[in-house]
Amino acid sequence: MQRVILKDKTFVPYITSDKILESVKHMAQKINLDLEKEMPLFLVILNGSFMFAADLLKEVTIPCEISFIKLASYHGTSSTGTVTEMIGLTEEIKGRTVVVVEDIVDTGVTLEKLAILLAKKEVKQMKVASFLLKPDAYKKSIVVDYVGMEIPNAFVVGYGLDYDGLGRNMKDIFVLDK
Length: 178
Ligand code: IMP
Known about the structure:
This protein is an alpha/beta fold.
């Protein structure tokens, strides 16, 4: 794998596509066992989660529904901590098991805001599936039920994750070169 340049920054290879798919498979297996009787609604948080969601949900074999929503909370390489509303939710979610599908949980600000929004809609329970988690940055108490990989507090791109809009289409994950 080659290093990549996106705008003014250089990124070096970090997690290969093979490793990613292996851990996504494990996540799906756990979900299949845990939520078999729940008929969950997977709520995919756009834009970053589109690639992870596609791979994960191909391996989810239990009856389920899938919906896509958008939130805005992040600009450049540091979290702004501001989140607007959920856009695009058309399903009735009261009383349902909702699985939030996230690309990465960093500070957890996004997740906390989302948890409040879902609680207001009286869901039965919220589960969280995030491909990446940065434990050193995570400051909230909401349990991330399904995690693909834990990574240090570094900025990564690829597999749906972007730097200023670029890099989402790469199938491997790259990390910012120091
Ligand atoms: P949080 O609210 O701080 O947990 O940030 C969550 C959102 O920030 C994610 O859904 C991503 O869109 C973005 N984000 C956090 N860390 C990274 C990163 O390393 N690369 C790209 N985007 C990131």
